[in-house]
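## retry 2 of 3
previous attempt timed out at serialization; input unchanged, resubmitting
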Amino acid sequence: MGACCENLCKGCPCCIACNRCCKTPEIPEYVNMEYVSMNEEDPSKPRIKVMSYNFLVYHHATINSFPWATGDMLWFDRRSKMILNEIRTSSPDILCCQEVDKHETYVKGLTALGYKVVYYPKPDGTGEGGIVAFKNDNFDLIEQHYLSMNDGTTNKDYQRNHIATICIIRNKQYDYILCVTNTHLFYLGSRDDIRTFQAAYLLHKLTEIKDRLGNIDGFIIGADLNAYPTSNCLKFLMSGESNAGNIYRGNNVETLKEIVKPYTNSLAFTSAYEQYHVMNAGGKWADGLTVDQRASRHLR
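## retry succeeded, writing output
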């Protein structure tokens, strides 16, 4: 064992940043999570469990991004085993995963758990992508689609290499058809206009699928939206508005309206965790701070 490995086992910062360790870390026991039920009012209806999970891409799992974490916590082998353990224990029927890198590990692990896995990479060559997975025993795959958000506009400022994975699946027992979409929208808090464009383009393409097939019983979006409950992006997704420009209020409004002008939409979504939002309608959290105040306090 070299000096670098010896130092890492003692907590060497330079080695921790590399996320490598000569020892196999212990995998902690699974911690049971609380899940949200969407149809408690009629338990006789067919029920499915949907999980959306951001895996945290490897190049973001660094000591600089997470200074409170030790190197073994950030190590890919440890985290990937914990993620697969949680999925195995939770046993969702449908799974939407963001920030998936080293995807062969997850495709192999999910396949062993009985899932059909559809993976698409982002077009930026980083090795990061998204997954839609569903239980083979419960669903058949009818269609799968790759959507690049870059195709939605010629405006370079709005081309951020984001994608969506779309799967049309049929339930084997009840014969209903679902359109399942996984996506990860732009992260920067001040650019809700980019997220709103991405949401508008996605709903435009989903509306095209709905109009073409005509027999889809339900639409599911499992995503990391990077959006506050009061954001324009979420408002549009849940509004049923035909055009995002009708409700958008924010930065670059005229540019956004021009980009989304050709898009159509006939879908309105319900948030699966709306009742758990801790921000009120006035844009304040439970502690009374605004979004900007809370972010400022956190950075200090």
